Amino acid sequence: MLVCKPISTPVEANTKLCVDEGKDLEDSTMYRQLVGSLIYLTMTRSDICNVVGVLSRFMQKPKKPHLKLVQRILRCVKGTFDFGILYKKGGTLKMKVSYVALCVILVLLLSEARVSLAVTCNALELSSCLSAITSGGAPSGTCCNKLREQRPCLCQYLKDPNLKQYVSSPNARKVASTCGVAIPNC
């Protein structure tokens, strides 16, 4: 792991982990220690919270794919060793305020990245919008929230012949514009 190439994201999109998939690890102690250390690291690294939480579910009987994902997270962490904030002794108040502003910006960026990575493309999430799309009525607040969450997945839905008729219909475009979500041209 010392000579591995760093990466920017802790997990690939649409990665799925199963309890029964893959071979058992011969020694699960190392897996447990690594996940335990990553849990500790989530206090300062909000971008890995979600995936580490999922990996911690497999502590009892980890498999090789679970260990591969732990190694990927370590590669992501390795790429950020040089991140940090330096507080100098005797620094001015103006300097400290700029550091606090930088911290706030970093937290906002990381939370936004975590939300965008956490999207799971599932057309059933948009079931609350189905009545508004079929009837042409006004969408509910739940529908608008789900539509905003599923925005990154709309291109994928447009490629599915069963879903395309709903996503690209005039009523769907009306619902999307009411919710303030633009349907992409894919």
Automatic annotation (TrEMBL):
Domain of life from the UniProt record: Eukaryota
GO molecular function terms noted in the UniProt entry: lipid binding
Start and end residues of each Bifunctional inhibitor/plant lipid transfer protein/seed storage helical domain: 121-186
UniProt KW Transport keyword: yes
Pfam families: Tryp_alpha_amyl
Spans through the membrane: none
Entry keyword set: Lipid-binding, Transport
GO biological process, one term: lipid transport
Entry protein name: Bifunctional inhibitor/plant lipid transfer protein/seed storage helical domain-containing protein
